Inverse folding.
């Protein structure tokens, strides 16, 4: 079963890393100095430890054999793409840099995403792919923002209870001991998503949404789509 990931990224920090000379970034990740400028984690979101992301970024640069390059990271990645490099492996590094610059990630089981988003848009979602559309998130977050965190959380739980009853499933804790923990999970995730909406109101943040085991290329919306960033950089390098 897949997870839906919604990572909040500090746009300025991400673009700064993408435009950093590869050799400089390699040194900063090696001597831990990059930690001084990593954005602060949002206290309600999960984020991996510095050392884990650092190690993966260094491994990515080693695997691409670009650690000594004087080009920017995005230019070096785009040139490898033009030279026939594996597009997913290249894009994974861009995602790692976004993760380094993130405030954290909200994630839920993909099926639960319908509970948190679909009731707050004008049209029913056309399958799971709809969970990853920009239009879905823009409309849903706008609607969620018109509710208090408590109102939204209660609406999600009531919707979940109604769906269980429609399927003839029990709501008795004695008959299903998982009911209470599932309800608490829905409350926690809905409250987190409501808070996430608040920090996305800043022009300095962007949202990268993707299925956890899927392509990195479609992560993000509009100009911050990872595939788009790589393609644009490749075009600029050719011109």
């Amino acid at each position: 079963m897949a997870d839906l990931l919604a990572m909040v990224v500090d746009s300025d920090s991400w673009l700064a890393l993408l435009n950093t000379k590869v050799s400089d970034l390699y040194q900063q990740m090696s001597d831990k100095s990059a930690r001084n400028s990593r954005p602060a984690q949002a206290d309600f979101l999960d984020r991996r430890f510095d050392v884990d992301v650092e190690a993966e970024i260094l491994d990515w640069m080693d695997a691409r054999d670009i650690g000594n390059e004087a080009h920017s990271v995005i230019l070096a990645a785009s040139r490898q793409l033009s030279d026939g490099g594996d597009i997913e492996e290249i894009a994974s590094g861009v995602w790692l840099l976004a993760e380094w610059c993130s405030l954290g990630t909200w994630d839920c089981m993909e099926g639960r995403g319908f509970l948190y988003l679909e009731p707050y848009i004008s049209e029913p979602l056309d399958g799971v792919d709809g969970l990853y559309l920009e239009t879905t998130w823009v409309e849903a977050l706008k609607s969620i923002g018109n509710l208090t965190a408590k109102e939204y959380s209660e609406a999600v739980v009531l919707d979940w209870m109604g769906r269980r009853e429609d399927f003839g499933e029990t709501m008795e804790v004695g008959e299903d001991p998982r009911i209470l923990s599932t309800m608490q999970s829905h409350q926690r995730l809905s409250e987190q998503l409501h808070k996430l909406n608040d920090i996305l109101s800043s022009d300095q943040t962007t949202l990268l949404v993707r299925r956890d085991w899927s392509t990195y290329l479609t992560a993000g919306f509009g100009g911050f789509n990872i595939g788009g960033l790589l393609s644009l950089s490749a075009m600029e390098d050719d011109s």
Remarks:
- Strands lie at 3-10, 102-109, 205-211.
